[in-house]
Amino acid sequence: MVNKTIIVSNRLPVKIVEENGEYLLSPSEGGLATGLGSVYKKGNNIWIGWPGIEIPLERQQEVTEKLAALNLIPVFLTPDEINLYYEGFSNEVLWPVFHYMVTYAHFEQVYWDSYQKVNGKFKDVVTAHLNEGDTIWIHDYQLLLLSERIRNIQPHVTIGFFQHIPFPSYEMFRLIPWREELINGMFGADLLGFHTFDDVRHFLSAASRISAAKISDNVITYKDRQLVVEAFPMGIDAGKFENLVHDPVVAEHVISLKETMHNCKVILTIDRLDYSKGILQRLQAYELLLETHPEYADRLSLYMIVVPSRDTVAQYKELKDQIDQLVGNINARFRTLNWLPVHYFYRSFPVEFLSALYSTADICLVTPMRDGMNLVSKEYVASRTDNTGVLILSEMAGASKELNDALIVNPNNIGEVMRAIVEGLNMSVEEQRVRMSVMRGIVRKFDIYLWVKNFMDKLEEVKHMQESLLTK
Ligand code: F6P
């Protein structure tokens, strides 16, 4: 039997959509799906995760067979589990605390009970497909307990874990009533990866204060096992975004976008609906700009895409209402018969249209309050094949550690964001080219394929280190 890699994440890289009673598979455009496509589509590798909607018991076999053809293995969640494990513990406890928005957190015991149960459910599916010599790569905060659960059954198995969202400072993390269980759950991995050194530092600090583990540099010794914690800043499929620029469909979109936007400069923002993304604050900065710089009326537009997400969670619904209201106010206050200050869309778009937007936008405004990495900023950079354009980037996004040539802002400082927009609008093409070409070089070199390779190579190195320690 050839050894395989098992990728595990809360969601599978394809969505199941129901149309007239039929289940259809729709490929996900996410960066992770593209990058890991090179892994799970190879040989007998597989990807285990939730297909994204509730599938009734009597149709689970049909869905399992459809997915099996793509090397995908489903974990089916009941409505209660979706409510308590996914919306509850994952998105109303871990998400707000890890993004420093603790007032949004609800520390409910039923959420925790369900989180443990569903991590156990994932463990059952993983172990049912696990053979000796296989490598398991677990992704993200929804599955913090999974490594330990698997290791309890298979003590020598190889497990990598990567967290796609920030790891908060100890003072935040300690607020969670189940902090010790979470840390111990993560210790089940051999290699723990985060986007930035700050995340690594925060994790090591929490681990040293909460657990009985011994920590030396980035090596943790726990229950006679050694595991390593390291930063792996995630990249994108830069080549794909560069090539898209030359796609005829994209070129057509660019032409019609330019017609729609007349001679306005375009400021682009694209986010999932989330309070961590700073969408309201960004709108306030734009409103301040229109207020204090009337000379820009008619000359620029904010093109704002908000992708629907988690809209069954109360805080997300509320945010959606606030955004709708603020956009309405700005447009009502500043618009003219021929000019709309904010073009706002609450929907997702195909990648060809996004590519056209990246090509058209004079400025890309990425100002999250907190973000693990933020791949939109990298997609914008990769799409600027003529090296023009200005990226305004929050210092709270992991990407700001790599893309130093962006205009870096504190998203809480509305005046600073406004001034950065003005600076971007007035930046000379020469300066744009200098900054953008440096950033493009970085995004192209440290792409998603190198990210996968670096993580997998390190995991292998850690296993060798463990083995050599055992034979000493
Ligand atoms: O990167 C963070 C993350 O939560 C991923 O785990 C997830 O796939 C993505 O954002 C979208 O979130 P959700 O799966 O809750 O729609």
What does this entry show, briefly?
By secondary structure, the chain is an alpha/beta fold.
Description:
- One of its GO terms (biological process) is trehalose biosynthetic process.
- It comes from Pedobacter lusitanus.
- In the C-terminal section; belongs to the trehalose phosphatase family. Belongs to the glycosyltransferase 20 family.
- This is Trehalose-6-phosphate synthase.
- Helices cover 47% and strands 19% of the residues.
- It has 472 residues and is of the alpha/beta class.
- It has a 9-stranded mixed sheet, sandwiched between helices. It has a 6-stranded parallel sheet with strand order 14-13-12-15-16-17, sandwiched between helices.
- Helix 9 (238-244) packs across helix 14, helix 10 crosses helix 13 and helix 11 (279-292) packs across helix 15 (414-425).
- The protein starts with a strand and ends with a helix.
- The mean pLDDT is 95.
- The chain binds 6-O-phosphono-beta-D-fructofuranose.
- 6-O-phosphono-beta-D-fructofuranose binds next to strand 1.
